[in-house]
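S.,

As promised, the IPE run. Input:
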Amino acid sequence: MNPVKHIAIVMDGNGRWGLKKKGSRNLGHRAGLNVIEEIIEESIKQKIKYLTLFTFSTENWKRPNKEISFLFNLLENFLLNKIPKLNKNNIKLKIFGSKKKFTKNLQELLKTSEYKTKNNKGLQINLALNYGSKEEILEAIKILINQKIKITEKNLTNQLYSKGVPDPDILIRTGNTNRLSNFLLWQLAYTEIFFEKKMWPDFTKKDFKKIIDKFKILKRNFGAI
Ligand code: IPE
Ligand code: MG
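Predicted complex:
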């Protein structure tokens, strides 16, 4: 049985779900947040060590301001309300992505959320926020060149936001869309990918468990036979 240490998720389909079911994309985002909490609970139960959630991409800035501010409001409220619960559950929070584009308030909130949970040893949740994989790789290469560090796979890996985190075993993308959208391009080299037809707000613990069970019995060769 394959061990599952790290699951990455592209939580896609909130907008379409919201429009169809509630007449507003934003209500889809709100519904999606409840699913995140369910998946966090199940990840703890399944003893998964790392959960990386694609929360906001470098390309999502192209959306209307109203939707962007709704998303960041959701995030702020989540962090303000849930940090004690995350701590109680021994969860460590990390941000993947540059914080520079955010308001000072949000930057502070993200930093304190990371700081307050940094000694927790349970599930590590990586929130990919203002995250783009090509930018991440380019920045890593620039650091290696500027600091005259030899360009090797290991050295580059150590300059990524995911430093110290093993590559994802599983990538799940909901929303009936089969693409990577500039997410963890380096880290997903040997990841098993599961595309789900369901929109994220309809995704359940049961769907999550089914994927994990399927993964556990896969034969993984890593290029060998
Ligand atoms: C994913 O859902 C959430 C974010 C990118 C913030 P979408 O908002 O992309 O939903 P669709 O794809 O438009 O339905
Ligand atoms: Mg989408």
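The helical segments are 14-22, 25-45, 65-88, 104-117, 133-146, 153-157, 205-216. Residues 11-16, 56, 60, 71, 175 surround IPE (ligand 1) (CB under 6 Å).

- D.
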